[in-house]
């Protein structure tokens, strides 16, 4: 394993899938030429998930066998095609009880995280990194403006106490939030966080370009914090949304309780699933007033059931079965936790 990895990979049972989240802002003017070779490497090892390449770097989350993911990490950091340009990349590992992705996608895009603000260039200027173990002390200071840079549906599952929610639908709206709610003359010290750290690198670069005096961001993002900081010391509330079929993770990066609405793809808490408007695989409180989505979800569910009745495998079966298995596992974990709390088991 390459010594330049920013995190030592945990020990994985052979029955588990290894998940790797990776990003780095780097000069990749040849990104278009790299895409085919990277895709071929992943397909040959049954790696699934999404990797985005752009002239400004790489970003993505993929999963596969531990051996396949280790080989991919070496390919990214030591492979001739990248020629050392990804050394020092932010790489985080976690485990999944089932393959969290249905397919592989390797995409070429203009940006690895879309802000559409050329003045934000993390390869040149970024804010001050704050290690997870130092984060609590920083965000408890009275002179700090704490900002969650993620989108509204992510914030809805969990966030840090006292954090401001920009209520954005996509990252490009972050610029409008800064223009209307923040003032560099007043908000001299801003601390921000996101899922894995990449969005904050660009957001911090953007704020510095707008004249903000001091900008801090959580190194490794929420995921690194949840992995590093003990639950008893944590200032995190709720679960952290992740962009795969696990939906969310909690402390220790264990899979959380949240599920996805199959109609609108909004993450759902137990309270959301208890809402009268919720129908499994059909609709949820967030799309209850969007009948066109209900119709599409209903038809998809009908096609799955028809195919199943004929003894055929429908293209939605893999997603449906994986989601069902994860939901059952989450319910079993919740029941086990309740039993332990009541003293029924040792």
UniProtKB/TrEMBL annotation:
Rhodanese domain ranges (all copies): 140-234
InterPro entries registered for this protein in UniProt: Rhodanese-like_dom (IPR001763), Rhodanese-like_dom_sf (IPR036873), TrhO (IPR020936), TRHO_N (IPR040503)
Catalytic activity entry: uridine(34) in tRNA + AH2 + O2 = 5-hydroxyuridine(34) in tRNA + A + H2O
UniProtKB keywords: Oxidoreductase, tRNA processing
Source species, domain of life: Bacteria
Listed Gene3D superfamilies: 3.30.70.100, Rhodanese-like domain
Assigned EC number: 1.14.-.-
Residue numbers spanned by region Disordered: 318-346
SMART domains: RHOD
Pfam family, any one: UPF0176_N
Signal peptide boundaries: none
HAMAP family: TrhO
Described function: Catalyzes oxygen-dependent 5-hydroxyuridine (ho5U) modification at position 34 in tRNAs.
Family per similarity comment: Belongs to the TrhO family.
Name this polypeptide is given: tRNA uridine(34) hydroxylase
Organism: Devosia rhodophyticola
Lineage: Bacteria, Pseudomonadati, Pseudomonadota, Alphaproteobacteria, Hyphomicrobiales
Gene that produces this protein: trhO
């Amino acid at each position: 394993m390459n010594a330049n990895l920013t995190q030592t990979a945990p020990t994985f049972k052979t029955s588990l899938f290894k998940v790797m989240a990776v990003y780095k802002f780097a000069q990749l003017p040849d990104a278009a030429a790299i895409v085919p070779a990277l895709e071929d490497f992943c397909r040959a090892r049954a790696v699934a998930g999404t990797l985005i390449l752009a002239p400004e770097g790489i970003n993505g989350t993929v999963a596969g066998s531990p051996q396949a993911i280790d080989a991919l990490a070496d390919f990214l950091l030591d492979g001739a095609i990248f020629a050392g340009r990804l050394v020092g990349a932010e790489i985080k590992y976690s485990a999944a009880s089932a393959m969290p992705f249905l397919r592989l996608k390797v995409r070429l895009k203009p940006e690895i995280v879309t802000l559409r603000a050329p003045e934000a260039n993390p390869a040149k200027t970024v804010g001050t990194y704050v290690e997870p173990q130092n984060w609590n002390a920083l965000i408890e200071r009275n002179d700090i403006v704490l900002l969650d840079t993620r989108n509204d549906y992510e914030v809805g599952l969990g966030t840090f106490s006292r954090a401001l929610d920009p209520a954005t639908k996509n990252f490009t709206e972050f610029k409008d939030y800064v223009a209307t709610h923040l003032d560099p003359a007043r908000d001299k010290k801003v601390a921000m966080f996101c899922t894995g750290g990449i969005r904050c690198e660009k957001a911090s670069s953007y704020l510095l370009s707008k004249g903000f005096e001091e900008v801090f961001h959580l190194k490794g993002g929420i995921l690194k914090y949840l992995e590093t900081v003990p639950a008893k010391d944590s200032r995190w509330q709720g679960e952290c949304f992740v962009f795969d079929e696990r939906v969310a993770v909690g402390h220790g990066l264990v899979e959380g309780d949240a599920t996805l609405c199959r109609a609108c793809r909004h993450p759902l808490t137990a309270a959301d699933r208890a809402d009268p408007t919720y129908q499994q695989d059909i609709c949820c409180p967030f799309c209850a007033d969007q009948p066109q989505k209900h119709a599409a979800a209903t038809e998809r569910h009908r096609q799955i059931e028809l195919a199943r009745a004929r003894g055929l495998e429908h293209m939605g079966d893999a997603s449906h079965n994986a989601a069902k298995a994860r939901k059952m596992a989450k319910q079993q974990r919740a029941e086990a936790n309740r039993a332990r709390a009541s003293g029924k088991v040792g």
